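Support reply, case 0932

Customer input (verbatim):
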Amino acid sequence: MNGRIEPMIGRYVHVDIGGEMHRIYFEENGAGIPLVCLHTAGADGRQWRHLLADGELTRNFRIIAFDMPWHGKSNPPASWTGEEYQLTTARYTETICAFCKALKLDKPVVMGCSIGGRIVLNLAIDHAHQFRALIGLEAADFQEPWYDTTWLNRPDVHGGEVCAALVSGLIAPQGPRASREETLWAYKQSGPGVFKGDLYFYRVDGDLRGRVQRIDTSVCPLYLLTGEYDFSCTPEDTKRTTASIKGARVTIMERLGHFPMSENPEQFRRYIAPVLNEIVKATVASKQGVHA
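Our regenerated output:
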């Protein structure tokens, strides 16, 4: 395999978010239905590299993974002067919609994990008509915090290492060691205060309790998949959330934790491939119905 070049291509797109241009890095591969993938808190689009390189799935999907501002290869906006970063529900939602608009994506599927899974629920509440389907990984309307965020951005500790240590227990033990370590490596590289700022959305601003009942899955199908080893967003959290969402599809994934797409890509594929195939069939059926 020496010299093998992977098929995904990385580029930058300039996106108007809140009246200011942001230089957003994204990677993509494939053709067909747009599938936008959202990374977890404090991480970046590298988490999706195995999905991006999947030759079978990319025959039907244009898979796109972008780094949120402040994450990975997407810098803070030019106007940033060092103030504390805090992600809000409104800003997160606007960023996703603006990115899809900048790339002129036609009714994309959006799949997010952790904070990405939470924001998927908000997209289903307020913007369902813009999307073909929504997929939330490790998603629930709210989780009680089990950690102290003051440790995540302090001058007397290594921020990256403490971030990685915090999430290390959320990874299922059955995953390949290299994949588990790779998942944690991204956390060790996170920018100062970025993980903490993302968790402001997750812990405080993104509380969707009492709102998910408004989700209409007849407008946009909703799939929620949660790993059995996730003790941050537990299977019970996801089931509780979907109990009030008529038509939501729930799957509890065996031998997976909070980072299914990166901690054990092969096992995750067993669960996500049928979901994506179902979306393809629904798209084909819809087009045939229109032509008929």
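We compared this against your earlier run and they match. Two observations from our side: The domain at 9-291 is CATH 3.40.50.1820 (Rossmann fold). Strands lie at 9-17, 20-29, 33-38, 61-66, 109-113, 133-137, 222-227, 249-253. Please reopen the case if you see a mismatch on your end.
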